[in-house]
User: Fold this.
Amino acid sequence: MKKVGLISDTHGKLSGNIFEIFSGVNLILHAGDIGGQDILTDLSAVAQVKAVYGNMDVSAEYRTLARIDFLNIENITLCMTHIMNSYKSFSYELFKLNRSADVVVFGHTHRAEQTKYKDILFVNPGSVHSPRGGGKPSVAIMTIDDRDIEVDFYEVK
Assistant:
């Protein structure tokens, strides 16, 4: 069983109880709009961090990060990106890349959500300090046990 911390849209700020929430995770995935290399450094004190760049991550420090990245965790193929316009169009983009995914982790909208579309679980952990649509600041933890995936959202205080 693996526990994966999901975070996005930090925009240079880590606040509140994030480190407490992520205590015990095996890996942290940052889905872009990081806002400074120090964010990834701080998170790496908790667990290994993988990240993609977002539309606001334009400086040279982000050149080593991909726009879209794939990894395998416990026999689950996971895709991470920042901007995902729609489930349908992103499913088509995966097809064009000749790749498939069981889970897509994305950010950009600042809204926590999970939706299943064509057997792909799409997860946005929300934003840690500037949620939209009346939501609360949030992160998520995805638990992968064999091929079972569970996502829990946590309010950042």
